[in-house]
Design a protein that fits this description.
single chain, alpha/beta, Rossmann fold, 11-stranded mixed beta sheet, 10-stranded mixed beta sheet
Length: about 575
Amino acid sequence: MSSHADISTEDSTSFPYIYRQNVSIPLKTSDASAQQMVRGNIYLPHSIAEGKKFPVLVTYGPYGKDIHYRDFRLPSYQEVNPKHHSEHSAWETPDPGFWTSKEYVVIRCDERGIGASPGRLNTMSRGTAEAFFDVVEWASEQPWSSGKVGLLGISYYAGSQWRVAARQPKGLAAIVPWEGMSDYYRDRCRHGGILANNFIKFWWNRQVVVNQHGRGELSEQELEENRRDQNIDNRNNKFRDDEYYASKEYSMEDVTVPLLSVANWGGILLHLRGNVEGWVHAGSKLKYLRFITGRHDLPFYYDEEVEVQLSFLDAFLKDDDRVGWSVPGKVPPVDLVLRKGDVGFNNAIAEKAYTRRTELEWPIARTIWQQYHLTPDDLGLVTELPTISHHQKVSYPALGSIQSPQFLHFTTAPFETETEITGNVVAHLNVSVTPDPTGPTPSDIDLFLTLRHLSADGKEIFYTGTAGDPAPLTKGWLRVSLRKVNTEHARHRSWLPHRDYFSTDVQPVIPGEIYPVDVEIWPTNVVVEKGARIVFEVASGDTQGSSIFLHNEITDRPEKIFRGRNHLHFGPKFHNYVTLPVIPSQ
């Protein structure tokens, strides 16, 4: 990667838009030791020559603004809607060919320490959000800008939107975080306190560090000294009050611009939770939550989804509201896609069979929070509280893995009528651990929970996961030493227990002691047809449907702490159940 010392920013007009490469954008950072600018590519409609001003769409991220989508991930690009193919298409960002044709300016920036932008590489940091703030304000002040800036992008380019919007930069008029986490600790790095290391390693090593500024000029040692490595940082920091995590926190209520949060039901290990919780807690008066299905990379470019993006952004960046987004109460705030039937997975055409329905709130007001009780003898799930007169337990080996899963399955009887389940899920379990006869004395328990769907003929129905992989309904996790719930917190709800995950919250786990825990399971949707069944899986490690989002860092889950035998306890004082959000027929 060149240091770009001899950068030219002359206009190139040989494209369907005007192209300016490597424009230097000044930063107002208070860190005097930091580089005071980043570089971005700017794509402008040709009609700028007529003196017109345009709204601006900005992305700011780590994947290399000059790396074409086809070079970043060719198989994906070949499946992208061809209307969004241009000479400057890039992974997870709005295509400049399409958006300039709709009279938007597109700015795509290398974040500090990436590509053409000098400085220290520190992804998802407070400094990253502060620099993004400066880029948004700069974009609003340019002579070709209408003064209104919108944010639109997938994943990293969505997660960063929450943080910069909370800082309320001048000119920011609307945001569309498309499948993007809003909570760095809970959504991405430590599910239930357990390190989600495998994806971070894949992402950092294959998609980020390869784009570091100075690569090809600086030595590996110099490059290493000029970056913060997420693999190391997330391994070494365990709690939200560690400076590393605390520095990334912000107030979601400070997000006040019009918001369209787009969540994918299949994103059960990275983004789904963040899009839902981000929408719930955002302070925006006009905010909308839209659910989709399909792979992580493609729906953003579907014609019908692009029309939603365009109408929303036109409403707030062009004052062209042909749908009613800007009129309170005109557009229902929640738009669901309902997963009914077995249409297979990774099949966009088949998923068109899913229907849509709008709602006025989340969770849905008419939700029946139905407890499905676990039974020890037949490993069932029943709606009536079972009578268990004496203490019983069912057990499974601790420290399971994707290669050697260790789990229990609790299964409902066939549903007698079609039943919709839509919303947050929570499980109440009574757990303990005992040592293996020749093993160490365990001092913690990791719980891995999964909700599965069986058709009437007993076949598991899979849904499209993030990478097109077969995914179950949803998953949840908890490290039992971090079981403490803050019931006084404003965000605590019966269907979503609030944990602070502070270092001061750590509680002992003693072999033989029984601990009641409430475990958050990520939101889900399914229409269970007559004769079908639901399965609740309790495991001691990752199981099917985890894809590359594994929790297998040996230093985070060492044998000396977790090896043993885990138990679920039943009896007059020990009731175990999973609470499902059942939606009654209208």
